[in-house]
Specification:
By secondary structure, the chain is mainly α. It has a three-stranded parallel beta sheet with strand order 2-1-3, covered by helices on one side. A three-stranded antiparallel beta sheet has the order 8-13-14. It has a two-stranded antiparallel sheet with strand order 4-5.
């Protein structure tokens, strides 16, 4: 967000209404930011930029009051002064998703960082962590994105894992580097603890009865960032009941001249859907704020495990939180175990072998089958027995030709003109769902399944890229294998003039991450555009939708840490997976993928599947990076976004 970035932002039609001044909002106590952006406004006088200090207490009512004054929010910077005492202010570059999404987004940034780390771009990942720490300090949460209308809304929380991935990539050869890294880790985890306690485990997001959390932003009324006609179909019945037009009703409602509790509740759920990142889906519509979702609670379990382990490994088991009290690793392990038990009680369905969202208002599980059930493997809160059932059910329900589909067709329901498709439902597939599944499957020993899913997804991307002049879109129809479809919000990344410049952030990252899962043989097949089912048939892979080995009988490789992609690590003190695996006897055959008929998978790769004792793996002394592990080295530059401000 330097001068050139501000010029681009000023030209963005989302930033303000036609004819109005572009606005840069800065925190009330960030005086260097105010001085810097006031100077930019003076230097770029033709843009007529307005710099506004936010109040100390950013309330939902205040945020609503500036709904008609859209603006960008300042982020972190390197701040110093020169020999003459003049301010030296260097805003930190960051990655944006691309297309119309030209801000730093919440969960997009996590997946973009995974891709950046594959390419050795750790500094950009660190910058984005620093921006999140800034947002927590000054805006109270990691925002949906750094726009004024997102001040009451967060997004799926990935900060602890993001911090750890970047931390492990930072140079640490000298004592000074090690100290700087340790100080950075302390600041980052202090912010993560603050976010956890003040955003996710308090009202209105915490359900006290279950101990689980829900997406529940605090914004008031109609989200202002949507197209002007987006909610007309929802408003129309209320307007007709009052005997006024839709536009007049929207004006009356926005200015608190009428009260409509039913509409208020609708917008609470609508905003919650947007906070979930899955906007929109029939899984969440009109009920999201009442759902303790699988995805959110798995993420928070991972926070609790990460904080416990980090306190033990780097801070002697104790941490002086800036909120005014000392934290202990034992406290966070207790939190993690309590949440894991609640996830088992309310979200796990033993009969169906899946995790489901739980409606805290109705007191029952949702029946919608979502691929986010696999996030339990990423977080490590499933036992191996649960994982076996989950993988079997997921392969049958979510694996399609082009990768993993968001949900089942049955759960989505019938589509019509009156009930149009939603972009996070069947038949669409998204990069975050693929990446989370690969990590989780690998960690539980389902290496062949992870590779199979990764090959399907990378083939989908590669085929579209080759056939359509380099297109890399936001999402795919993974059932019909196309990026060309009509759905709400369109498909970012497909509208370009002759030569694409950018792709889409997490889609680009998924390609880089996905390649690290493939064997050499699979990469060669991908380069020849061998269709997935043809490749699997020729390579003797099982393609009937079931795992080609069973961890209960032939456990396969013990989960290991791949330094290139930063697979989540599980440690002896805090993980359900370790607890169940620690007493297993490991034999040499576990270094191979064994089919049910006893044959060995041709895709076994000794570089990944070398035998490791689970006991030795899960202790801290085995944390060293496995530098001998194979790593794909592609040619050419990888682009993550339209711009880095």
């Amino acid at each position: 967000m330097d001068e050139s970035g501000i010029q681009a932002i000023c030209n963005d039609p989302k930033n303000t209404k036609p004819g109005a001044q572009p606005i840069i909002y800065v925190p009330h106590d960030d005086h260097p930011a105010y001085e810097y952006y006031t100077g930019i406004a003076r230097d770029l006088s033709n843009y007529k930029i307005k710099v506004v200090k936010l109040p100390k207490d950013i309330t939902p009512r205040y945020v609503k009051s500036i709904n008609n004054e859209f603006g960008i929010l300042s982020l972190a910077a390197d701040v110093s002064h020169d020999a003459n005492g003049r301010l030296v202010y260097r805003p930190l570059p960051f990655v944006v998703p691309g297309g119309r999404f030209n801000e730093q987004y919440g969960w997009d940034s996590y997946f973009e960082t995974l891709g950046l780390l594959v390419d050795g771009r750790y500094q950009l990942g660190k910058n984005m962590v620093d921006n999140f720490v800034y947002e927590i300090k000054h805006y109270g949460k990691i925002l949906n994105a750094n726009r004024s209308y997102y001040l009451t809304r967060s997004q799926p929380p990935f900060l602890t894992d993001m911090v750890l991935k970047v931390f492990e990539a930072l140079p640490d050869k000298t004592d000074d580097e090690k100290k700087r890294n340790h100080d950075w880790l302390q600041r980052s985890f202090d912010a993560a603890i603050t976010e956890y306690l003040t955003v996710w485990v308090c009202a209105p997001r915490l359900d006290a009865k279950t101990g689980l959390s829900c997406y529940h932003p605090t914004g008031i009324g109609m989200p202002p960032e949507t197209e002007s006609t987006h909610f007309d179909h929802t408003i129309k019945p209320f307007a007709e009941r009052l005997g006024v037009g839709v536009e007049e009703y929207k004006h009356l409602y926005a200015n608190d001249m009428i009260s409509e509790p039913e509409l208020d509740a609708y917008f609470v759920h609508d905003r919650a859907v947007r906070e979930s990142g899955h906007d929109t889906s029939y899984r969440l519509e009109r009920r999201c704020a009442n759902l303790a979702t699988v995805d959110l609670n798995c993420l928070l379990y991972k926070y609790e495990v990460d904080i416990a382990d980090t306190l033990d490994e780097h801070f002697g088991g104790r941490f002086e939180w800036s909120g005014g009290r000392e934290m202990t690793a034992a406290e966070w392990r207790a939190r993690a175990e309590q949440r894991r038990q609640s996830i088992d009680k309310y979200l796990w369905n033993e009969k169906k072998g899946l995790y489901f969202d739980y409606d805290v208002s109705l007191g029952e599980q949702s029946v919608y089958e979502s691929v986010t059930a696999l996030w339990a493997l990423w977080a490590g809160c499933a036992t191996p027995a649960q994982a076996r059932k989950l993988v079997d059910a997921s392969c049958r329900k979510f694996e399609v030709k082009g990768g993993l589909v968001s949900g089942t067709e049955e759960s989505r329901g019938v589509i019509s003109l009156q009930r149009p498709n939603r972009q996070w439902d069947y038949p669409f597939g998204w990069a975050p769902h693929q990446i989370m599944a690969w990590y989780g499957l690998y960690n539980y020993g389902f290496v062949d399944v992870a590779r199979r899913f990764a090959y399907r997804w990378l083939f989908t991307i590669t085929q579209a890229f080759v056939d359509f002049n380099g297109v890399v879109p936001e999402k795919f129809d993974v059932v019909n294998m196309t990026h060309r479809f009509q759905v709400e919000y369109g498909n970012v990344g497909v509208d370009f003039k002759h030569v694409p410049r950018e792709g889409f952030g997490w889609m680009n990252a998924s390609y880089q991450v996905g390649l690290t899962y493939l064997t050499t043989h699979m990469r060669r097949a991908l380069g020849m555009l061998t269709p997935p089912d043809m490749f699997f048939a020729k390579s003797n892979w099982k393609i009937d939708g079931t795992p080609s080995h069973s961890p209960a009988t032939t456990p396969g490789p013990v989960p290991v840490f791949i330094s290139e992609i930063g697979t989540p690590k599980y440690r002896s003190q805090s993980n359900a997976l370790f607890g169940a695996l620690k007493n297993l006897a490991i034999s040499d055959c576990q270094s191979k993928l064994v089919y049910n008929d006893g044959s060995i998978s041709p895709e076994s790769d000794q570089a990944v599947n070398d035998p490791v004792s689970p006991t030795s793996f899960f202790i801290s002394e085995n944390r060293k990076k496995r530098s001998s592990r194979r790593k794909w080295r592609g040619s050419g530059k990888k682009r993550y976004s339209a711009a880095a401000f």
